[in-house]
Amino acid sequence: MEKRNILVTLECFVHKDGKYLMLHRNADKRIMPGVWMAPGGKREFNEGLFEAARREVLEETGLVIKNLRIKVAANAYMKDIDQEVFFH
């Protein structure tokens, strides 16, 4: 069986009063430097998606999220890090 590197990540679109919260990645980041994106990150081993979403938003913004819904799921192969990535 072929060994594959699989990474599960998520982005959390925080919406309030018709506005979305976006964060600006540092220009020195290896992946997607200088890009505006929603808060998010990697899901830890044995961590549920909702638990990971709440943790990532809290870590990156200090906000506590109450209402969560999964809107989209996708996967992609990222050649520069040689990993298959599942986005939620």
Automatic annotation (TrEMBL):
Nudix hydrolase domain segment(s): 1-88
UniProt GO molecular function: hydrolase activity
SUPFAM superfamilies, alphabetized: Nudix (SSF55811)
Transmembrane segments: none
Keywords on record: Hydrolase
Domain of life: Bacteria
Cofactor requirement: Mg(2+)
Any Pfam family: NUDIX
InterPro entries: NUDIX_hydrolase-like_dom_sf (IPR015797), NUDIX_hydrolase_CS (IPR020084), NUDIX_hydrolase_dom (IPR000086)
Protein name (database record): Nudix hydrolase domain-containing protein
